[in-house]
Design goal:
This protein is mainly beta.
């Protein structure tokens, strides 16, 4: 089983080694892409400053601390098909 360093919804930024045209962070992890190479895990990241998401390698990202007001406390579970984290359904008693 491959373990990912980042979770859906987590704030990240590019580590600065890449010289590419992009807005300043933070970016939000919006999905985990299927594992093609276990040594190069990939995510979809989204900036509020852009209308589209980008693919990013885990090795190019660093975690960013978000203010408590922007953090989510909603319980999430991974969708096995899309790789997205979704709110867990409430269990009926």
């Amino acid at each position: 089983m491959t373990l990912h360093k980042f979770m859906i919804g987590q704030a990240v930024d590019f580590d600065g080694k890449l010289s590419m045209s992009r807005p300043r962070g933070p970016f939000e992890i919006v999905s985990v892409l299927p594992v093609e190479d276990p040594s190069s895990l990939t995510y979809r990241v989204k900036s509020q400053a852009e209308p589209f998401s980008r693919a990013a390698k885990e090795s190019d990202l660093v975690a960013v601390d978000m203010p408590p007001s922007q953090r989510t406390t909603e319980p999430l579970s991974a969708d096995p098909v899309s790789g997205r984290w979704l709110p867990r359904p409430l269990r009926s008693r």
